[in-house]
Design a protein that fits this description.
2 domains; Immunoglobulin-like; 13-stranded mixed beta sheet; 8% helix; mainly beta; elongated; 4 helices
């Protein structure tokens, strides 16, 4: 666990594009046995050796994405363009038409997306092999290009957009399952999974269906389009409306939204025909600041079973608007990931006395809950100073030779970027 924590503290950031290119490979390795990969050619988890293509925001120029490989081409007879009787889902036998960027309001109780265990859409035997080396389906986004997505404590799904799937193969495709999800995000608070926090919904008829916003660590997201899979005649298009909202605990950065055309062959085979990626900017105008004024705990080392080391932490609000509440954070982690919550004692100076704080283990490492000194009203332009001290119990693992100590802050559910330093551990 702690390796990712140290990376967060040290601000070692892997470019999102690099993560995106390999994320499906890591999920495949973690979820599919080697024997199954050798037998199936890994067609169930994405294009083989395919690069991700950027998406275009214009309706008249679909993004050029790379098709999947590993499935033999089989020609199928052409058919008339399919039509849709589902409100909010449009069919166009020509080029993708412009779609509204702000779908209509949702009812109060959207239905939940089916779980991975639900029986997926069954394609015909002919459709299962109906893939050729050329691009079969073009995908285009509408309403996201140049968009800045704000984060909010309640993650409202108010950011509407549409995605269009167009058959460019020259022959009928019996089943296309539309899939949309966010790739791994370097601005996610939990760097172990890099899953962006928030909500995603798809307009199915007249109601909104909840979908997983992040692709996660497995392949379940690839099955979310099965209930609304559709056929596409040559040149036909299908446009579907989506909306999303981002949670306040996401850091600013660039988030890649991925749209896929998946062929729902069976419960165990979902090859990707095409994928396209639309980058969006994640912004947080209500993010607090954190600082460690001296950047050096006193003393510069901490002895196992010995006296505590002290460290100063500052939490500030420079957002231009007041915060309803603001509190500091103290985080501890070791490179080997051996530190446990029961090994650490953390106290904060409150009203002239040292007050012991609850400690727990989360995605950031060992975290002290400083609610005891939380400010209930933090005007903009104010900085609040705190004095912490921490000690290590005699039960602390022998393999811990140093600790990363980080200062952080949380205001109205928004997390400040942590500031960190290292201290030696002695015995």
């Amino acid at each position: 666990m702690r390796a990712s924590v140290i990376s967060r503290f040290a601000k070692i950031v892997t470019p999102a594009a690099a993560v995106a290119d390999t994320s499906w490979v890591r999920r495949l390795a973690a979820t599919v046995p080697l024997a199954a990969v050798l037998m199936t050619g890994a067609v169930a988890c994405g294009p083989t050796g395919a690069a991700h293509a950027p998406a275009t925001g214009g309706a008249g120029s679909p993004s050029v994405a790379v098709p999947g490989a590993g499935v033999s081409p089989v020609a199928t007879p052409s058919a008339a363009p399919s039509t849709s009787s589902t409100p909010g889902v449009q069919t166009d036998p020509g080029a993708p038409s412009a779609a509204p960027s702000s779908p209509s309001a949702a009812p109060s109780s959207p239905s939940a997306a089916p779980s991975r265990s639900a029986a997926p859409y069954k394609a015909s035997a002919a459709a299962a092999g109906d893939t050729n080396p050329a691009q079969e389906v073009a995908i285009s986004f509408h309403g996201l290009a140049g968009t800045e997505l704000p984060v909010a404590g309640t993650a409202p799904t108010t950011n509407g957009f549409t995605v269009t799937w167009t058959n460019t193969s020259g022959h009928r495709i019996d089943a296309v399952a539309p899939v949309v999800a966010a790739q791994h995000y370097q601005g996610a608070r939990c760097r172990q999974t890099s899953e962006v926090q928030g909500n995603l919904q798809r307009l199915d008829g007249s109601h909104w269906t909840d979908l997983p916003l992040s692709q996660g660590t497995g392949m379940d997201y690839a099955y979310t389009g099965d209930p609304v899979a559709f056929a596409l005649a040559p040149g036909a298009s299908r446009t579907i409306s989506y909306r999303l909202g981002l949670g306040a605990d996401n850091a600013p950065g660039t988030l890649d939204i991925e749209a896929d055309a998946v062929r729902p062959v069976s419960a165990d085979s979902h090859p990707f025909l095409t994928r396209a990626v639309q980058p969006v900017t994640v912004a947080d105008a209500h993010r607090p600041t954190a600082a460690m004024p001296t950047m050096t705990p006193r003393p510069t080392s901490v002895a196992v079973g010995g006296p505590a080391a002290e460290v100063q932490v500052e939490a500030g609000n420079f957002t231009g608007a007041p915060m309803g509440w603001l509190k500091p954070r103290l985080l501890l982690a070791d490179p080997a990931g051996l530190l446990r919550a029961q090994d650490v004692t953390v106290e904060v100076m409150a009203n002239g006395n040292w007050t012991k704080l609850p400690v727990s283990e989360d995605c950031d490492g060992i975290t002290a809950d400083a609610s005891a000194v939380q400010v209930l009203s933090a005007p903009s332009g104010r900085v609040f100073e705190y004095e912490f001290r921490f000690a290590l119990a005699p039960t602390t693992a022998q393999g811990i030779g140093k600790l990363t100590v980080a200062a952080g802050a949380i205001g109205d559910g928004h997390y400040a970027a942590p500031v960190s330093t290292e201290v030696s551990v002695t015995r």
